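Reading a protein record of the kind used here takes only a little practice. An example makes this concrete, so a full record is given next.
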Amino acid sequence: QLQASGGGLVQAGGSLRLSCAVSGRTFSTYPIVGWFRQAPGKERDFVAAISRSGGITPYANSVKGRFTISRDNAKNTVYLQMNSLKPEDTAVYYCATKGVGSSRYDYWGQGTQVTVSS
């Protein structure tokens, strides 16, 4: 139902754009999409999220000003543009969806690896 892609190896200061393709039914029923990441040996952390309209986009403090989340509802896809990447951004990135008013994310993608070399 969710397919994350776009990860890879990049040098510090570089950019990557992640994509999260969501099935149509899931996209409409669970319209809030979030990105999370998990580094080796660490807990999974929130990165960013986007509302159905795209008008609400909270970010983790660690990525503010460097990452931008956006969505194309016609393509059932959410993007995470990552600029000025740092080695500490290295992690497996996951996308997930939840319904409006829900406190938890219900569906998760498989994750895509992002590695930033120094």
